[in-house]
Design goal:
Layout: E1 4-6, E2 9-11, E3 15-17, E4 40-45, E5 58-61, E6 64-67, H1 75-87, E7 94-98, H2 103-114, E8 121-125, H3 141-154, E9 159-163, H4 171-179, E10 184-187, E11 191-194, E12 196-197, E13 202-203, E14 209-213, H5 218-231, E15 236-239, H6 245-254, E16 256-261, H7 263-267, H8 271-285, H9 290-293
Parallel strand pairs: 3-16, 4-7, 7-8, 8-9, 9-10, 10-15, 15-16
Antiparallel strand pairs: 1-2, 5-6, 6-14, 11-14, 12-13
The structure holds flavin mononucleotide (FMN).
Length: 305
Amino acid sequence: MLRTAIGSLQLDSPLLTASGTFGHDPSALAFLEPGDLGALVLKTVTPEPRFGNPPQRMGEFPGGVLNAIGLENKGLAYWRDEIAPELTKVPMPVVANAGGHSAADYVAMTEAFHAMEGVAAIELNLSCPNVVGGIQFSTDASALEEVVKACRAATDKPLWVKLSPNVASIVPFAKASEASGADALTVSNTLMGMLVDWRKRKPVIANGTGGMSGPAVRPLVLRLVWECSNAVNIPIIASGGAQSADDVLDYVVAGATAVQVGTAVFRRPGVISEIAADLRRLLTEENTSLEALRASLDWPHPLSC
Ligand SMILES: Cc1cc2nc3c(=O)[nH]c(=O)nc-3n(C[C@H](O)[C@H](O)[C@H](O)COP(=O)(O)O)c2cc1C
């Protein structure tokens, strides 16, 4: 009932993990029932190891969290030797997420992931707000085109482009990604934000600013998903504040094919299985399907005329 496909990638469920919120390896899968998770999207990997930003790296507020982890990871060589061999045993497609500072870094990551048997698809993190590099690719459409084209030439595996919400309009970036050969768009990465502690007169996280995620961003990301879905013909993967089956179906009606669940997992590690059970129940009760609901919003799109 939950089966879906993102282009050529067949999934048992439209629910995906969100990069950076479900670990660096498959060990957190123990919290979920197989069949509930469509694909395991892992934390961003960069060519060289990164220590990340100094602590404190995360802050909470009523609508979610602010993070500036700074893409901490052990680098490509470690990933290739220690993590990639484990991925062939994972009972669902694994999506590797690539980060870097330059187009050459992204191409090197894409080539490396292309060669790994356990990697079913590649998500380009071209939108991390917490490191130098990355973000410029989703705030400059010509830089985005250049890097996506170069990565496209390096692989025939499904290539997803994760876009930034921190732009005046996401539409040119969605169109540039599609024109450059992206197979799907992940909409979106975190929103630039800030938390302060007025007593200390200091920002809550050491980086000062960070990326906002969780329920507070959901209406904003829903609007972005809707705009992208009206602008391009490739599948949209929603990523922003989903924490219930209703949230997921709202995204589907707005045009999403799949939905990543990130921040909600911090509070309830098994939340993806809970959402999957609720999705099956709601679709049965309403006698409908994901396919029937997709992009079915009954509202004219003002930008499409
Ligand atoms: C602690 C934390 C770390 C994250 N790390 C990454 C990352 O390494 N790469 C990436 O592409 N996105 C990263 N993200 C963004 C998430 O993948 C997701 O796009 C975003 O949090 C919105 O979804 P959510 O509101 O369900 O969390 C991170 C988010 C959080 C909260």
